[in-house]
Amino acid sequence: MQTNFTTAQLADPHVAESEKILRKCVHCGFCTATCPTYVTLGNELDSPRGRIYLIKDMLENGRPADKEIVTHIDRCLSCLACMTTCPSGVNYMHLVDHARVHIEKTYRRPLMDRLTRGALAMVLPHRGRFRAALRLAKLGRPIAGAFDKVAALKPIASMLCLAPASVPATSPLEKPGVHAPKVARKGRVAILTGCAQPVLDPGINEATVSLLNRLGIEVVVPKGEGCCGALVHHMGREEAALASARQNVDAWTREIERGGLDAIVITASGCGTTIKDYGFMLRLDPAYAEKAARVSALAKDVTEYLATLDLPEPQRKPGLTVAYHSACSMQHGQKITRQPKDLLTRAGFVVKEPREGHLCCGSAGTYNIMQPEISARLRDRKVKNIEATGAALVATGNIGCITQIASAAKLPVVHTVKLLDWAYGGEKPAGL
Ligand code: SF4
Ligand code: SF4
Fold this sequence. Notes:
Layout: H1 7-10, H2 13-24, H3 36-41, H4 48-60, H5 67-74, H6 81-85, H7 92-106, H8 111-123, H9 127-140, H10 144-148, H11 154-162, E1 177-179, E2 187-191, H12 196-200, H13 203-214, E3 217-221, H14 230-233, H15 238-259, E4 263-266, H16 269-275, H17 278-281, H18 289-298, E5 299-301, H19 302-306, E6 321-324, H20 328-333, H21 338-346, E7 350-352, H22 367-370, H23 372-387, E8 393-396, H24 399-406, E9 413-415, H25 416-423
Parallel strand pairs: 2-3, 2-4, 4-5, 6-7, 6-8, 8-9
Antiparallel strand pairs: 1-3
């Protein structure tokens, strides 16, 4: 694609990066076929190619974002299916991230939108606040229907509906510490405890530590680690996202220097995609660029890490048929497709792949709160395809997908690592 940025504009490294990306796009439109919003809405401006044109126009003319571009960029799930499909290697992720920062800096959103986004950014990345909010949401659930009747209040209705009926007890894993294996030590990793996931389902990280320990892997929960920053990053809140990234880079760098790390294990693929991008996000910060690149190189999804280990025979072979839902951040963001299915098969599960596996379930961070209608259409389509497999349960590697699919599916939805932990001698996951 031809671009017409001025030399002065290209002096801004963010614009220069976006220009490089734009020039790779040959506007072939292959990406439209796999874009969930284009497939759902049928509008070119809700396709990757349409959004690329809108972003180019906004950046090239150096103008503030307007309602039209905000509408179409907000509808983008950042699922990155377009990047998997694109034959020209267009890095849509970095382009849309830049556009979101530009929108955040130049566009004044309607009041309710500002309040909702502000509340989400203030609450979700903090475990204590999120836990308290979920308890409050439980009380507000009976009146969710009233909020749903007013367009501007729909996000509140969605939040109330997505909140679990009960909030699990705080896990000891939330505290920093070292979890040593009882067998001979074969490796040492840090685990990202994260923000929303340990509140919604602390059993995911507990199963991970229990499984890794049984396999001889020491697991460290470093002091000072917190939210990966993805939630605010996708809102265009660059400074907040970079602050989270720096805090985590510092925490993991201390561990790398103290005892060495073979990997930074992540159990939520949405977080994994962001942490693997820290090297890029902090590339312009001389104090952090190198450390962030090292952290990104060490970041591994738990299934990606498990696949590198010499696994013993499973202790039990459950024989259950599992529909494997590959989160977008897993298959498109991190290009991890084979390992979770191979591990499940090896552990004795029969793995089925639902039709249209490339399409997002509509969760996408806070998307199911901010865009409830499109999100619900995608969820229902996903659940129909999952249920058509005839599987007994769903396995996936991202808490957002678990919450989203479980809100409509009749089958239990379980994190992949819980099933693996069970097969290799751990506890049977609740609800099976
Ligand atoms: S597939 Fe790639 S090159 Fe083709 S229009 Fe989409 S982003 Fe551009
Ligand atoms: S990230 Fe997903 S929703 Fe956004 S343009 Fe690409 S395919 Fe479409």
